[in-house]
Amino acid sequence: MDELKPLEDQLGYKFKDRQKLVEALTHKSYKKPYNNERLEFLGDAVLDLVVGEYLYDKFPKAKEGELSKMRASLVNEAGFKKLADALHLGDYIYISAAEENNKGREKPSLLSNAFEALMGAIYLESGLDEVRRITIDLIEACYPKIDLGSLFKDYKTTLQELTQAKFGVIPDYILKDATGPDHNKEFEVQVFVNDRLLATAKGKSKKAAQQEAAHTALKLLKDEDKS
Amino acid sequence: MDELKPLEDQLGYKFKDRQKLVEALTHKSYKKPYNNERLEFLGDAVLDLVVGEYLYDKFPKAKEGELSKMRASLVNEAGFKKLADALHLGDYIYISAAEENNKGREKPSLLSNAFEALMGAIYLESGLDEVRRITIDLIEACYPKIDLGSLFKDYKTTLQELTQAKFGVIPDYILKDATGPDHNKEFEVQVFVNDRLLATAKGKSKKAAQQEAAHTALKLLKDEDKS
Question: Which of A43, B41, B87, B178 could form a disulfide with A116 if both were Cys (CB 3.0 to 4.6 A apart)?
Answer without folding.
Answer: A43
